[in-house]
Amino acid sequence: MQEDLLFNRKNGWEDLSEKEMEEIFKFSDEYIYFLNKSKTEREAVVFVKEMLENNGFRDIEVKQTLSKGDKVYFINREKSIYAAVIGNDLIEKGLNIIGGHIDSPRLDLKPNPLYEDTGFAYLKTHYYGGIKKYQWTAIPLAIHGVFVKANGEKIHVNIGEEENDPIFTITDLLPHLANEQMEKKLKVAIEGENLNLLIGSIPNKQQEEKETIKFNIMKLLNEKYGIKQRDFVSSEIEIVPAFKAKSLGFDKSMIAGYGQDDRVCSYTLIRAILDLQNSEKTAVCILSDKEEIGSMGNTGMESQAFDMFISEILNKLGINKPNLLEKIFFNSKMLSADVDAGLDPIYANVSEKNNASLLGHGIVLNKYTGARGKAGASDANAEYVAQIRNIFESENIPYQVSEMGKIDIGGGGTIAYILANKGIEVIDCGVPVLSMHSPYEVTSKFDVYCSYKAYKAFYNK
Ligand code: MN
Ligand code: MN
Fold it and tell me: Would you report the helix, strand and coil content of the chain in percent, each value rounded to 5?
C-alpha cells in the first residue's frame, strides 16, 4: 500500500541480477572507450559516424530516395551530426527525437597564441563554456584540433594521449608565495589571461636573436605538421585534460572522465538508435555543437541546419509540401538528452533533496531548467510528462525528477527550448553528474545504462 501510494526513489544497485550487473559493466567499458577517443566535438563526430556506418546508416547525400526502414545521417561541418531511421508510420504524425550535445567546456587557443617569456614558450588560451578556472591549473593537458592552411589543407593534431606523448600544463603559484592569491575570491584568484599553456623551454642554438625558444617550438611544429605561426589564425585547437576516463571506486560503480557533459547522453542515445528495428515513428537523433556557449553558430542548435536535414528527408521520401515541416515538428516528441546536477553530499546545501537527482537512482526528468523563477525554461507540458512517465513505468525504467539546485542558487539551460520553439513537445532527460564542467566529471554506471534503456524505450513508442 505504502509503495503504491508514495513516490520513493530506490538505489538502483540494490536488487540487480548478476546478468544485469554484467550488462551494466560491459556497456560502461564501451562508453569509457568512447570518452577516451572523443575529447572534442570533431572527434566525437568521427567516432559516431563510424558507429552509424557499421550499423547500416548512410550519408543522406548518397541516397536518391528514402523509404521505410532506411537509416541516414547528416554531418554538419564536422562538428555536429544528425541521424534518422525512417519509421512505418506516416511521418506527418511526428518524429521521436532525442538530442544531446558533443561540445564540452575546455580551453581554446587564441588566434595568435604563441609567445615567449623569460625562458619559456607558451600558448595563450580563451576558455570555452562555464569553467572554474582554478581547476585547469597544475593538471596534465592535451592538445586536440585542426589547423586549416590558407590553401584549405587540413592538419589534425592530437598530442598528449599516447603513453610516449609529452603533455602540457598550466602552472600555479606555490602556496609558500600565494598569500595574496589565497586571500582573493575563488572566481578571480586565477585569471583568464593567466591560463597560458606551458609548451617548451629549449632555445634555438643557431639563432642569436631574441625569442629563440618560440622559434624553436615553431621549427618543431613546422617539421612535424608543416605549419607556420600564421596557421594558428585558421585553427581550432582545444586544450583538454590528458588523463583518461576510468572506473571510479573500489566497487567500480562510477565513471570519472572529462566531457561527460554531454557525451554521456550523446553516447547512450546513439547506442539506442543503433538498436532500432522496425519502429513505428521515424526516430531522429541530434548531436549538437556549441551548447556550452549558447547554441549559436551554424553548428549550434539555433541554426537552420537541423530543419534542413528533416526537409531533405521529406524531399527524398517524395512527400514534401509547404508547411509540412512545421506540422511534423508540431506533432513531434523529444527528449532533450542532457546531464543534470546530481546531489553531492559534500555540497548538499545547494540542492533541495526531494527535487534533486541522486547518482545510482536512474534517469532524470527535468520538467524545466532556467534560473530566477524558471526564466529561459521551455517547461514541459503535464500531458507530455505523463506520456514519458508512462513509457518508463511500463518498461520498468527507474527514473527520478529533479530541478537544477535550490531556488535562486543559480541555474542552467539546455537545447530543449530551441526545439520547443518549433512546436515540439520537449522534456530534459539525462544522467546525473557530480563535478559537472570540471576536468573530471563523475557519473554512475547504473544511470548510464538506465539512460540507454530509457532512450531505447522512447524510440520504440
Ligand atoms: Mn550539457
Ligand atoms: Mn554543460
Answer: 35, 25, 40
Q: What is the pLDDT of residues 218-262, one digit of tens each?
A: 999 999 999 999 999 999 999 999 999 999 999 999 999 999 999
Q: Which three cell numbers mark 165?
A: 606523448
pLDDT tens, position by position, 361-378: 999 999 999 999 999 999
Residue 130, all three cell numbers = 562555464
Residue 330 host element (H or E): helix 324-330
**Overall pTM surpassing 0.90 (yes/no):** yes
Residue type, 316: K
CA–centroid distance, residue 366 to ligand 1 (Å): 13
SS3 category, 85: strand
Three-class DSSP category at 395: coil
Which residues, chain by chain, have CB under 5 Å from ion ligand 2?
261
> What's the residue count for the chain?
461
Residue 105 cell numbers, joined: 567546456
- Cis ω before 262 (30° cut-off from 0): yes
Query: To 5 degrees, how large is the angle CA 445–CA 104–CA 125?
Result: 140
Is the predicted pLDDT of residue 208 greater than 90, yes or no? no
Rg value, the chain, Cα: 23
- List the one residue out of 222, 215, 197, 211 whose CA is nearest residue 119: 211
What region does 405 belong to: left with phi over 0, alpha with psi -120 to 50, or beta? left
Question: How many Cβ atoms from other residues are within 10 Å of residue 41's Cβ?
Answer: 28
| CA of 288, nearest ligand number | 1
> Which helix (H) or strand (E) segment is 35 a member of?
helix 18-37
Do residues 351 and 364 touch, judged by C-beta distance below 8 A? no
Which residues share a beta bridge with 400? 364
Q: pLDDT tens across 15-34, in order?
A: 899 999 999 999 999 999 99
CA distance 314 to 24: 38
Residue with cell 545504462: 449
Pairing of strands 254-257, 441-444: antiparallel
pLDDT in tens, 61-87: 999 999 999 999 999 999 999 999 999
Query: Ligand 1 centroid vs 92 CA: distance in angstroms?
Result: 30
CA distance from start to end of the chain? 30
pLDDT for 207 equals 64
C-alpha cell, 428: 530534459
User: If you measure from the C-alpha of residue 376 to the centroid of ligand 1, how many angstroms do you get, rounded to a whole number?
Assistant: 15
The SS3 of residue 130 is coil
3-state secondary structure of 55: coil
The ligand whose atoms approach the alpha carbon of 336 most closely is 1
Ligand nearest to the CA of 338: 1
Residue 447 and residue 9 in contact, taking contact as beta carbons nearer than 8 Å: no
